[in-house]
TrEMBL record, chains A, B:
Pfam families: HGTP_anticodon (PF03129), tRNA-synt_His (PF13393)
Record protein name field: Histidine--tRNA ligase
SUPFAM superfamilies: Class II aaRS ABD-related (SSF52954), Class II aaRS and biotin synthetases (SSF55681)
Catalytic activity: tRNA(His) + L-histidine + ATP = L-histidyl-tRNA(His) + AMP + diphosphate + H(+)
InterPro entries per record: aa-tRNA-synth_II, aa-tRNA-synth_II/BPL/LPL, Anticodon-bd, Anticodon-bd_dom_sf, His-tRNA-ligase, HisRS-like_core, HisRS/HisZ
Highest taxon of source: Bacteria
PANTHER family attached to this UniProt entry: HISTIDINE--TRNA LIGASE, HISTIDYL-TRNA SYNTHETASE
Residue ranges constituting the Aminoacyl-transfer RNA synthetases class-II family profile domain according to the UniProt record: 29-349
Assembly and binders: Homodimer.
Gene source species: Kribbella yunnanensis
Keyword Cytoplasm annotated: yes
Molecular-function annotations in GO: ligase activity
Region (Disordered): 427-447
Family: Belongs to the class-II aminoacyl-tRNA synthetase family.
Length: 447, 447
C-alpha cells in the first residue's frame, strides 16, 4: 500500500494524546454508569434497513447501506449501519425479552454512522454513550427523573464547562397545538425544533408557508410563544396557562414535566431547566425529552439528548416502554480539544523508559521492565542502544516522565522534567501516583 | 417497531452476563498492552475499497461495501468496512507520519467485518485486539521476540486453557520452495496453509493438480516434509538442513527464526514452538508469522495471529516496516462461553439493591445510593415499593448479592446468598472486595 493518503471528511480520528483524553472520558462515563447499576451490552453495527427506516429527521437517506462486494450486482442491500443505539437496543430487547430481567437497565458505548453533510460537531462516524431503562408493559415515571441525575453525576467528574440539561414533555407542544386546532403536529414540532438554529423569523415563515403546515399568523405566534417559555422550576406551568390554550394532553404533559422539575430540584437544584422549545428530531419519543448545552457553547447544540419512548419495542403481545439518554462523546470531546480546553498529559501510557547503553543489556532490561509492570507501572525498553542524550530525547518527545539507566553504581532513575536523578531499586521504586498513568490536562479552569 | 425478530447469522451478541466476561477480558488485555507501553488508537470503520483490496485470502469479495441509501443508484460504492486492523493502521501511520514518534507502539481494540460464511468461531462481525510496532525506514528485529511475550503476559492473566504460540518465518518456505525450483511461491504457501484443515492427502492433490502449481510428486513430498517440521527450540534448523535444499533466502529465514526461538526461550521457556507449516493467509506478511492454539482446542484454529510486514505502509519516500499480533477476542470468548468454561458472576454491575417499603422512601433511598456510589459501590434503587420477598427475588434474579432495607431500627443489609442480615451504616459499610464488581466464574480449573 502506498501513495498519498487524505482524511475522509466526517470520519475523525484522534492522535494518541487526544485519544488519551477520549479514553479518560469513556472510562469515567462507563464507571459512573456501572455505579448506577447499568449493565453493558453491545449490539451489532448493522440492522435490517426496514428497522432503521421511518424514524424521522430525513434519517432514511442518511443511512449507510452495507453489502458484500461479492454479492450479485442486482442484490438489494437490506442491511444498514445503525444511526443511533436506541433502535438497535429496542430490537435487542425484543430478541432477548425472555432472557432479560425487567426493568432492564443497560448502557451501551459504541460507534454510530449517519451520512450527513459533515460540519463542526456533526460527523459521519461518531461515538455515543447511552443509558436506557426499559420495562415490560409499564415503566415507572421516576426513571425520567433518575436519568438526568446519572448524566449529571458523570459530567461532574469530567473536565467540561458548566452545562444545562433542558427538559420538555412532547405532550405539552402536542396538546397545545391540538388546542390551537393544528392537525399536523409532527411537522410543526420539527420546524420548532430548528428554532435555535434558524431563528424565530425563519420558523414563522416555515410555519405559515403554503407548502408547510400553513398556520395563520396568530397561530404561529402562539406556537412561538410556547417555545419561548422556560424556567428552572415548575413555574413554566403558569406561563403556559397564561397563553389560554386548553387540551387534556397539554394538562397531562404539564403535570408530568412539573413533577420532574420538582423531584429534580430536590436532588440537584438548578440542574434541569424546563425549556418548552426542546423537541428532538427523532420520531420515536413520546413524552419527556432531554437536551444538554454547554454553557458558553450554546450554538454548538446538544451534547447529550434523549427521552421517553413508549412504543419503540413491541412484539405484538407486550410493549416495552423505555427512557434513555445519550452522551454525544465524539461531539463533546472534539469540541473541547478543538477549543484547546483539554489535552493528554503524554502520548503514550509509558511512565518509564529503560535506556540501553549496549544491546547486550536488553535481556536484563526486559527483566527489569517485567518487575515494574508487575507492580502496575507502564514501561518500555529503548528501541536501540544509544547515547544518554538520545534516550532522553526519545522520552521527552513522547512525554514519558522517567528514564531508568543502568550505571556503574546500579540502576538510577531520572525525572526528565526536573532533571533529578537518583539511585533506585526497581523492585520497590514507584513513580508518584499522578505519573503512573497519562491524564487529562485542562487548559482553562472549569467551574 | 414490532413483530418477530430473528438473529442475523454471523453477528453474535452477548447477553449481559456474557458481556461481563467479554468486558473483563478486554480490560485485562488493554491493561496489559498499556503496561507494555502501547498507546491506544482507533481508526474509522471504513476505508477506500482500493486500500482494502488485494490482500489475499479471497478477501476482496468478502469486503462489505458501504454507501448512503440516499446516494444515486449508479453511484459506485467506494468505501468498505475494514476486515482487519492492520491495513487501517498502516494507512493511519502514513496519514499521520509527521505527528507520530517512531518506533510507534500502538494497540487497537475494535470490531472488524468479513462477509464470510458464518460457522463456529467465524463471524461476520467480531472484535480484535491488536498490538503493532512500526518503524520509519527500519524496525529492529528484537520486536519480533517481544510481541509474543506481551501476548503471553496478557493470556497469563486470563482464565483460558493452556496455549501454544506457533512461529515461523515466511522466508523459510519461500527459500525452500525456490531451492526446489518452485516459481509460484504464493500459491503453494496458500495451499500449505490449509494443511491442518484439509490434511496431507488433499494438500498433495492440490499441489500436484494441473490447474494448481502442478508440482511433481517428489517436490510436493518435500514441501510437505518441510511443513511437518516443528520444535520447541532451535533444533528445527538441523531438521530442515537434513532435507538437503539450499537457498540464500532459506538460510536467512532459518537464522532469524532460530534467533527468535533462542531469545524467547531465555524469557519464557516453552512459550513458542517453531512450526514450519504456519503461513497466514494475508499477503502482507514478509517475515516472521505467528499463530496461537488453545491446547485441547486445536481444531478450533488460531486465536491470536500476526507477523512482520515490511512494505504495507509506504508513501514513496519512506517505508514503515511493522510487526503486529492480533487477539481474536470474539473467537476466544465465544469458544470459552459455548464450552461452558467461563461465565459472569452476575448479570449487572449492581452490588447493592436498596429496597423500598413505600414509594415515599425513594428520595431518601436515592441519597443513600449516592453515598454508597461515592465510595465506589454500584447501587440501584428498587423500581417500586414491594414486599420483602419480591425485593429479594428481584436481586436474586440478577445475581445482586446484597439488599439494603430500612427497618424500624435503621438500615440493615442482607447477603441474599447466606441469608445473613445485619445493621449497617451506609456511610461506612462496604461489601467484601470480591463482591464489589462482577467477575468471571471459571467452571473448569485452568492450568
Amino acid at each position: 500500500m502506498s501513495g498519498k493518503v487524505t482524511p475522509l471528511s466526517g470520519f475523525p480520528e484522534f492522535l494518541p494524546s487526544d485519544r488519551i483524553v477520549e479514553l479518560e472520558f469513556l472510562d469515567t462515563i462507563r464507571e459512573t454508569f456501572e455505579l448506577h447499576g447499568f449493565a453493558s451490552i453491545e449490539t451489532r453495527a448493522v440492522e435490517p434497513v426496514e428497522r432503521l427506516s421511518n424514524q424521522g429527521e430525513d434519517a432514511d437517506k442518511e443511512i449507510y447501506g452495507v453489502r458484500r462486494l461479492g454479492a450479485a450486482a442486482d442484490e438489494k442491500s437490506d442491511l444498514g449501519l445503525h444511526f443511533d443505539l436506541t433502535v438497535p437496543f429496542a430490537r435487542y430487547v425484543l430478541e432477548n425479552s425472555g432472557k432479560l430481567a425487567f426493568p432492564f437497565r443497560r448502557y451501551q458505548i459504541q460507534k454510530v454512522w449517519r451520512g450527513e453533510r459533515p460540519q463542526e460537531g456533526r460527523y459521519r462516524e461518531f461515538t455515543q454513550a447511552d443509558i436506557d431503562i426499559v420495562g415490560d408493559g409499564t415503566l415507572p415515571f421516576h426513571y425520567e427523573v433518575e436519568l438526568p441525575l446519572v448524566i449529571a453525576d458523570a459530567f461532574s467528574k469530567l473536565p467540561i464547562p458548566p452545562f444545562r440539561i433542558q427538559v420538555n414533555n412532547r405532550q405539552i407542544p402536542e396538546g397545545f397545538y391540538r388546542g390551537l386546532g393544528i392537525e399536523d403536529v409532527a411537522s410543526v414540532l420539527r420546524i420548532v425544533d430548528k428554532l435555535d438554529k434558524i431563528g424565530a423569523d425563519k420558523v414563522t415563515q416555515l410555519l405559515t408557508a403554503d407548502g408547510g403546515p400553513a398556520l395563520s399568523a396568530e397561530t404561529a405566534k402562539q406556537v412561538l410563544r410556547l417555545a419561548e417559555i422556560s424556567s428552572a422550576d415548575a413555574s413554566f406551568v403558569e406561563q403556559v396557562r397564561a397563553l389560554g390554550v386548553q387540551h387534556e394532553i397539554l394538562d397531562e404533559g404539564l403535570e408530568r414535566l412539573a413533577a420532574i422539575m420538582t423531584a429534580a430540584n430536590e436532588h440537584a437544584p438548578g440542574l434541569l431547566v424546563a425549556d418548552l422549545k426542546i423537541a428532538r428530531g427523532l420520531d420515536y419519543y413520546t413524552g419527556t425529552v432531554y437536551e444538554t448545552q454547554l454553557i458558553g457553547h450554546e450554538s454548538y447544540g446538544s451534547i447529550c439528548s434523549g427521552g421517553r419512548y413508549d412504543s419503540l419495542a413491541s412484539d405484538g403481545k407486550t410493549t416495552y416502554p423505555g427512557v434513555g439518554i445519550s452522551i454525544g462523546v465524539s461531539r463533546l470531546i472534539t469540541r473541547l480539544i478543538s477549543q484547546g480546553l483539554v489535552k493528554g498529559s503524554r502520548s503514550t501510557p509509558t511512565a518509564v523508559l529503560i535506556a540501553l547503553t549496549t544491546e547486550d543489556e536488553r535481556a536484563e532490561a526486559m527483566r527489569t521492565a517485567a518487575v515494574l509492570r508487575g507492580r502496575g507501572i507502564p514501561v518500555e525498553v529503548a528501541p536501540a542502544a544509544a547515547k544518554f542524550g538520545k534516550q532522553i530525547k526519545f522520552a521527552d518527545r513522547r512525554g514519558i516522565p522517567f528514564v531508568l539507566f543502568s550505571t556503574e553504581n546500579g540502576p538510577e532513575i531520572k525525572d526528565i522534567r526536573s532533571g533529578e536523578q537518583v539511585a533506585v531499586d526497581p523492585a520497590t521504586w514507584a513513580p508518584p501516583a499522578d505519573d503512573v498513568r497519562p491524564s487529562i490536562e485542562t487548559i482553562q479552569e472549569n467551574s
